[in-house]
Amino acid sequence: MSNIPLNIDWQQILLHWMNLAILVGGLYFLLFKPVKQFMEKRQAHYQEMEEKAAGKLQEAEGVKAQYQQKLDGVEAELHEARAKVQQAVEKSTQEQLEQAKKQAAQIVAQARSEAEHSKEKVMKEAQRELKKLATEAAEKIAFKSDVDPFDQFLNLAEGGKENESR
Amino acid sequence: MGKHKKGLAVCIIAVLLLLAASLLTGFHGRAESVQEAMRDAVLHNVNQITFIGGKLINPGLVSAFLVTAILLIAAACIRVFAIPRFRLIPGKFQMVLEEAVGLFDNMAKTNSPHRNGFLGAYIFGAGAYIFVGTLFELLGFEAITAHGEPVTLPAPLSDVNAAIALGVLSYLVILSGGIAGNGVGGIGKTLKEFSLPISMSFRLFGALLSGLLVTELVYYFVTLSFLLPVVVGVLFTLLHAIIQTYVLTMLTALYYGEVSEPSHKEKKGKQKAKASA
């Protein structure tokens, strides 16, 4: 062994190997593995938290989209209902207007017919009155004087002329 | 301001007292000359320590066992007291641990996209060993040699046997990655890099030995530590601990990734099989 330069001793090298094996194994089980496991656990914990947060965010986005859709639907419904109501109001107004026009036309027609009727009635009454007056006058002339009715008529007619000439 | 001035004065007095004490006690010298100490730091053929069964071993091996013991006790304490109290929002200590584990795990994952589970564990262990082992020389623990002389325990990797052990082990790990990824082809791929165990071993040995020689010099001439600021030595040791840790772990991860990557022929074969299916 003394021939090997630098005093290299295989037995001591083997002892160093044994020492290194104990050290590496011991450090692995006592320090490296537990610390690494803890770091991985923490990483998994934060990853899980992140995933949960991302899931909740996605869920919230979905709910938001759903509500937005509903809101959009409500607006469209509102618009439709408003249009319907407006249409109904317009229709009803039109109907009322037409009805009012019809009623007005009826009233006018009725008033006209009533006016015609009363005119006719007045005319008939006037004619009847005139006839009656004429008859009474004729009767008076014919039955209450001694003068010949024809003469009386003539006198009257002349009297009328005299009065006219005056 | 008053407190700062008092503290500074205390420091200066302590330094002067220590300097005076070291000069008064004088340099009685060690049994060996500085040349012998340097030579022994490289070759480890004089200052050896008796191991179990009377076997003589280099001080570096004792350092290696001590570093392993320190690391495993610290890891066990952390496992029992700190890890069960880990929280989702980490504190400072937890962050340091997670950063260390994450650093090696990510290095394994980025350099070797395939089969990196074992690689991460290995480079974490090797990295901790190199880093703590290099800083270990700063503690200046003493051991008694077989001749009854005190010797300062060096960094484990300044012993050529430790450097060879780690370099060759790293190469074997790379080889295992090649076999796991490519079977027999992986062995060929790994054997192409036959210079890797030598380069990795001697890179570590050279880097750590230089640190050891400087430390040996400082410990040899105690009074020298007043002329060369110790803090500079500490900073350099810290720096090269980081650099050596990074270099070995990065190289291991890189070569492991290269040899464990499925070859293009296999990929093409699989694609053809898929296309025909």
Give, in order, the helices and strands of chain A.
Answer: HH
What is the mean predicted local confidence, pLDDT of chain A? 87
Helix content of chain B: over 70%
Helix content of chain A: over 70%
Structural class of chain A: mainly alpha
Q: Uncertain runs of chain A with pLDDT below 50, 5 residues or more?
A: none
The tally of structural domains of chain B comes to: 1
Terminus-to-terminus distance of chain B: 82 Å
Instruction: State the total count of DSSP E strands of chain B.
Output: 4
Largest sheet of chain B: 2 strands, antiparallel
The main sheet of chain A comes to: none
- Largest sheet strand order of chain B: 1-2
Estimate the global geometry of chain B from the Cα principal axes.
globular
- Give the class of chain B from helix and strand content and strand pairing: mainly alpha
Total helix count of chain B?
A: 11
CA gyration radius of chain A, whole angstroms: 66 Å
Supply the key terms:
heterodimer; A: mainly alpha; B: 277 residues; mainly alpha; two-stranded antiparallel ribbon; 11 helices; 4 strands
Describe what is shown at a glance.
The complex is a heterodimer of chains A (166) and B (277). Chain A has 166 residues and is mostly helical.
What does this structure look like?
- The complex is a heterodimer of chains A (166) and B (277).
- In chain A, 92% of the residues lie in helices and 0% in strands.
- With 166 residues, chain A is mostly helical.
- The N and C termini of chain A lie far apart (195 Å).
- Chain B is globular and about 75 Å long.
- The model of chain B has no long low-confidence stretch (mean pLDDT 83).
- Chain B is mainly alpha-helical.
- In chain B, α2 packs antiparallel against α8, α6 (160-182) packs antiparallel against α7 and α8 (196-220) packs antiparallel against α10 (230-260).
- Chain A binds chain B through residues 6-9, 11-13, 15-17, 19-20, 22-28, 30-36, 38-39, 42, 45, and chain B through 42-45, 55, 57-58, 61, 64-65, 67-68, 71-72, 75-76, 78-79, 83, 86, 88, 97-98, 101-102, 104-105, 120-122, 124-126, 128-129, 156, 159-162, 164-166, 168-169.
